[in-house]
Amino acid sequence: MEWKIIDFDKIPGEKLVDNYFGAITRYEFNQIINYNKDVFFLLGDDSGEKADNYNAIVYSTKNFGDSWKKNILGKGTVKYGLCIGNDIFIVVDSNKIPTSSTRKSTLYLSNDFGDTWSEITHLDEGNISNLDFYSQNTGIAVFSLKKNEEFIYEYRYTKDSGKTWSKFDLDPDTNCIMNSDQSLLYIEDNNKLFQFNIETGEKKLIKSLSIPKNMDLAYIKKDKKTDRLIAYYFGKEQESNKIGICYIDKDEYVSLPDNYYITTHGNFFYGLLFNRPFSTYVWSSDRGKTWKKEVLDNQMIYTDIPMGYYGEGYIYIEATPLKIKNKRGTFFVIGNPNIK
């Protein structure tokens, strides 16, 4: 395993926290999103230093972490983001706890890879969550809105990059993903695949998937290399470590080794397994038929949330190096079996 170690203390404008702790401890990041290997974004806030009065922070780089730009987007925290084409959408919440009685959300857009951000939508009393865009214009999200001193949840749809939204009739607890500008896919009863037309409200059963009876649907995501939709399943039993994925288009179910919470890039599967205090990096180049692994003994202690993935094997994460010359404290690191 090869590593690139990024020291936030050396980023211009950063300084130690309380003249002792590393600059990265100032921040609590909620998500890492990648446009590609070199261009990526750290989304979160500076509550590590300002627990009661924190700012929403986006740290971005266009050159694999060699240089960085920090944007402060008002009070709150950057909860979530995604890349669609060359557009980057992020959601800033005033509260770190989604069930807070006081909620404000703002949707921002950047089309210059994080140099500047434009406010698209703002909610004075509510949150935006479950954001998904199919194209740079069309997307969906769950809105929580305050009515009669209570919050209600509803799905909404945009056709103008988030400037305006209209309600559509779908259970806000539904785990779904857009598959066209007008439709989305979701799974009921763990194996029944439905297509839902957002504009007409028509619901159509597409197929029944071949899912083992002891597995529960967790979420659906898109493979970044092939654009194939993959449903992730976890074992139903409380102590179960079973994991599997299903390629929705071909109804092809792949069982994974226990506790292998991995991501996919075409035929390449990989992930970092947290076997505390140390961890194991695993990868497969044949869609899980055979696996390789590297126990990362005496290299680093990793934080498991958040973690970013890109391409064939790249992981992006905070870590504390062990037994690495002249490296102490917490750093942002990028790892790959054959990093270049």
Supply database-style keywords.
five-stranded antiparallel β-sheet; mainly beta
Describe what this molecule looks like in 3D:
The chain has 340 residues and is mainly β. It is built from no helices and 29 strands. The protein has strands at residues 2-6, 28-34, 40-45, 55-61, 69-75, 77-84, 87-93, 105-110, 118-123, 126-133, 139-147, 150-158, 166-167, 176-178, 183-188, 192-197, 203-208, 215-222, 229-235, 243-247, 252-256, 263-265, 268-275, 278-284, 292-295, 300-302, 308-310, 314-321, 331-336. The model has no long low-confidence stretch (mean pLDDT 92).
Briefly say what this structure is.
By secondary structure, the protein is mainly β. The chain has strands at 2-6, 28-34, 40-45, 55-61, 69-75, 77-84, 87-93, 105-110, 118-123, 126-133, 139-147, 150-158, 166-167, 176-178, 183-188, 192-197, 203-208, 215-222, 229-235, 243-247, 252-256, 263-265, 268-275, 278-284, 292-295, 300-302, 308-310, 314-321, 331-336.
